[in-house]
Design a protein that fits this description.
Two copies of one chain form a homodimer.
Chain A (H helix, E strand, L loop, with lengths): L2 E6 L4 H11 L3 E5 L11 H15 L7 H17 L4 E5 L7 H13 L5 E5 L10 H9 L5 E4 L6 H13 L5 E4 L6 H10 L3 E4 L6 H10 L4 E2 L9 H11 L3 H16 L3
Parallel strand pairs in A: 1-2, 2-3, 3-4, 4-5, 5-6, 6-7, 7-8
Helix pairs in contact in A: 4-5, 6-7, 9-10
């Protein structure tokens, strides 16, 4: 079974399902989004979307509680429409008090049967804001935590995430985008810490992608990061670069199916 | 005609030619390299290669005059072996006096019939080291200058490069890797400055790659950046993302053929 371990809600949904069918992707782990770059019709709109994203990634957008709740409802609606094709993660605001965090996770993640929390997009130096999130994971049967780990995060931020992963050894922690330019040091952490995983999306070199999936094949989850990645090209890359068919199968679906108990 | 506008010498050469044949790439603009990551047989060797690269990209390796001359002789040998398939750029050390720079360009670039200078890998804050290179370009019938413009360069560095491009309006300047995370501001410069171009390799999002090639199709050169990129996957990406076949043709070969007067 081929599972895209990370794509955002893109509209219209039927377009996404059609593309999944064409690329031979059975299921998608769907992530919320507070904006829809795929709706851009020209470069000016793309630019506006990406500037929003850059502010978001720099942690400038704050908690955005209402926007995040709305984005989660888009994920839930999508799952209700295509329950055999979608599994969902839900956005959780950072910076809330512990009680408010636990209440949010209960109401928004648990009650909606979502299987994880994320994508967390933090600015550099903001990793401490995840403390309550990890605590909530422990309270809610170790919900996986998915964290954007490309620019603007530095290796010092990634290292801090890995310390949280060590402190909560039963919480699966997924580092998005292979750790970006810090991939060498990030792979070393992933080798050392059993509950630390890598998402393969946003690779900027297939040489690097290939080196990583063949080195730690059991710790990598195929991800497309739609709308930023393309389903077919992303899947082709894994198939082309994996040294063996069994490595490709692990990365393209078996690993995440095992983690989420889906098959 | 499909031209890979940027790949490094990878050994053995016949392997590269075979891969070009399989991917349907007619010619490659070959760049020198002072190391051969493609020869790595395990992750430890990959890591060592990439640590070398990181030092190189941070400008920590200095002029490396002898290593660069040797790397150029690899390019020249490759062209002599496959004159119909390879065109070459040559490395020029930065930080030499003007006279020494001109003498080097004459002996190493001109006398070997190389068609451009690069890839220049400078640390952030080191762009002023290119002054003599641009002067040499002007002296030698406006040899194109190819500059790595992904990490660790900041937008301030890219802006400084664009000022050099304005000061030398007849020198084609190719910014490698789309400007990296600074692609939005970089595209604005490329639109404004006629002799400023983009190389498409090392894209980390096909959404971004597609937005750029469709916005400034006449200013983009397809690049694989082998060994870091894969010929087939890189070509497939352009074909899949270009809005029209004529945009694909421009990016995949026509633009660079026109620049280098090759067809």
């Amino acid at each position: 079974m081929i599972i895209d371990g990370n794509s955002h809600v893109t509209l219209p949904l039927q377009e996404h399902i059609k593309d999944m069918d064409m690329a031979g992707i059975d299921k998608t782990v769907l992530f919320p989004t507070t904006f829809h770059p795929e709706a851009s019709t020209n470069f000016t709109e793309v630019k506006a979307s990406m500037e929003f994203l850059n502010d978001l990634l720099a942690g400038k957008k704050g908690s955005m509680v209402e926007a995040r709740k709305k984005s989660v409802s888009e994920v839930v609606e999508a799952i209700n429409l295509y329950p055999d094709r979608y599994i969902g993660f839900g956005a959780v605001p950072v910076g809330l008090e512990l009680d408010a965090t636990l209440q949010y996770v209960d109401e928004v993640i648990e009650k909606n049967n979502l299987v994880g929390m994320g994508e967390f997009t933090l600015g550099s130096g903001q990793i401490h804001l995840l403390n309550n999130i990890f605590y909530a994971s422990q309270e809610f049967h170790n919900l996986p935590v998915w964290i954007h780990a490309f620019f603007p995060l530095t290796f010092s931020d990634i290292k801090e995430i890995s310390e949280l992963a060590k402190r909560y050894p039963r919480t699966p922690v997924i580092l998005g985008h292979l750790g970006g330019i810090n991939w060498i040091e990030t792979v070393a952490l992933v080798k050392e810490i059993p509950n630390l995983y890598l998402d393969t999306s946003a690779y900027y070199s297939t040489f690097i992608l290939g080196s990583i999936i063949n080195e730690v094949p059991a710790k990598c989850f195929f991800g497309v990061d739609r709308p930023f990645g393309d389903l077919q090209l992303s899947k082709d890359a894994i198939l082309r670069l994996a040294n063996t068919p069994s490595i490709a199968s692990l990365v393209l679906g078996e690993n995440i199916a095992q983690l989420l108990h889906k098959s």
